[in-house]
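Question thread 4412

I'm putting together a teaching handout and wanted feedback from people who do this every day. The idea is simple: show students a protein as raw sequence, then show them the structure tokens that encode its fold, then repeat with a second protein so they can compare. Below is the first pair exactly as I plan to print it.
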Amino acid sequence: MNIQRFMPRPIRKLLSLSSHQLKYELRSNLWFICVIYALIGIGIAGIAYWIDISSQYGESAPAFFSAGYSQTSTIVSSLIAGSITLNAFTLNSILVVLTNFSGQFTPRMLVTFVADKRTQHVLGMFNLVFVFILMAFFLIDANVETYVAFPTLTIIFMFLGLATFIYFLNHAVNWMQVPNLTLNMKNESQERILATLVQDLEPYRTKEPNTSVDELPETDKMYIAADGAGFVQIIDYRRMVSYAEDHNLVVKLEKRIGDFVLEGIPVVSYWKKDNTPVDENALRRFIFLGSKKTEVQDIEFGINKLKEIAIKSIGNDDPNTASNAIYQLTDLLLSISKITRFTPYLTDTNNDLRVIIEDESFDYYLYAALAHISIYAKSDPIITNDVLEALALLTESVAGENHDMCWNFAAMIARGYISPFVFEHNEKRFYASLRSISETTDKREEYRSLEEELRARLTPDNE
């Protein structure tokens, strides 16, 4: 009997996640770390209660560390108000600043800041201090004359809260500097997306399964429709491959991670190899729909965050920020090309084809990252040159099988640029980047033809 069938969908979603996916879900929510720190605060308050009230060690403690009931009550009641004020001031100030930054760059910046482990530990520490002092306020007893743990720990925690406040301000200021902002977003995408894919998807990928797709006739294909609307957030590849192996199926995913589906739209199809009964609801449960896109398995989602920063920076006449985002995007694309094997076939331990995912390739992510930026920069020689220089660096680093894609994309960007060059320096950078890409990809003849075409159109003397 499968108990998970009777569990709420959010619980089933968490239970199906790998360790990397579960870590992402927990880190994306402040409540988890705050609950942990609150429990620590309650535990410390319990220890202090045992020291001061159950064992009454305060009577034998040095006078410097001990305090009477009235003094302890005054300390605790005063500092609990200070703790609340400190927390409220900090969070209010940071939220105002982050809201402004979100409007300027990307609304996903707030989520990224909240998911930062330093941010979460700082907020957790604030929670610990407040919970401990609040517990102390209710636990101190007028019948006990001398206290040592409660007053001492209350003062120590308040100083710790003040130090945390200063650290938090410094952390927030550093985090919101544009180079750090784009670097943090890129690192987050590399950590969460690529690490998740390596563990959950890549072990099953192969380019040459035992079964050919040509052996699967379309007439025998059975479709399973979505039972609700939403974005495809997570696909449980491990259990899907296992289920297909147990029931001798070949399953095809009709939608990719991040796609939006409506109720009744096919999301999964399958081929039966024998008469083993198939529970279509089981296959449907391996796909989790939600109200928003997430970064757990969606490579494109991580790319879009940096792309949004670059595009908004172009609109705000901030070329330095746009350039920084472009180079971080290039680094992310390089990581994707190194880790991901671009094949749609997932197999079991016997290399038998079990799951077919939506076909993808390196050029798909290359276009997703830089095509939109190049459209916004088609009249801006500075940003266009940054895109071409970043592409030249990427071309030198990726495997040879991706060189044709890089050259074709570079030629497309160059042809899309429409503004004649006013400054010779910009023109030299433009053609130098194209020349570098052509030499790396062995497209020298194509480059000479492209250069003649572009000079005829972009040189001011020819206007």
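The second pair follows. I'd like the answer to focus on this one:
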Amino acid sequence: MTPDTANIACRFVFDGAVLFLWGSGAYLWLLVPEGLSDCIWAKLRAVRVAAVALAVIATVVVLPVRCAMLGNGWADGLDGDVMTSVLTGTSVGTAWAWQAVFAAFLLVVTLLPLRQKVAATAVVSALLLCGLSLTGHAAMNDGWLRVLHRANDMVHLLSGGAWVGALIPVALVLSRLGDSTIGADALTALIRFSTAGHVAVALVILSGVANSLLIIGGLPLDWSVPYQRLLFLKIALALLMMLIAVFNRYGLVPRMGRSHAAGKALAAGTVGELVIAACVVALVAWFGTLEPFPG
């Protein structure tokens, strides 16, 4: 495996883990009634532990990977001088330091009481996502335009994560709709997700368009450039997710009280959104390492 490929893998693992931790934590903290929230949070324990572990491991691994990329291959990956130069003299090093600090905080959060743990997981994961805008295409401009681009990128990451990261707990909430004790809370949680989802999707669209304008000056229509080709595919998949979400909300949710099949279709649609979301994260991890213009 080349350092470039390893970097893409680290980006995919880290981004996917933190998007899940942010979206699920924010949803269960802010939108789900407390009793149901505690139940779903407990059900997610294995997934949460895995996500924290993957985020920390990806953080540890990506530093020597970046050193290998900036140096002369894997031989420089663990070279002390190269590592020091990267940490102290590059934006990559600054971004990694931010990532390392808050990845360590994720481990500390696991020791907190339950309700504090949910909120703290959401906050720390949000800060980790914001740190992704410190490097890459969001940092390609100078002055106020760089500040604007980074802020817009943060909005894109947080709104997208609030949507896709909440899909796993939403699937678990769906399974509680028929429960005589917490079914009403489950319905409340789904309605709140739907309302918040409208806002999140709108922000994803607006910030995504702004990102495209800031990076390439328009839409990704030059398919001879791998970056633009992959970005176009990402946009197409995101639009497909939005269509599924709209159909779920307006086609299936109103029928759930009258049709058992509607509930099954809604669950299947949510799983479909999750699969597409994973593909989107993989694409972003890939084209985020590419040049947006022809070489």
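Top answer:
Good format. For the second protein you could add a caption like this: The chain has a mean pLDDT of 91. The radius of gyration is 20 Å.
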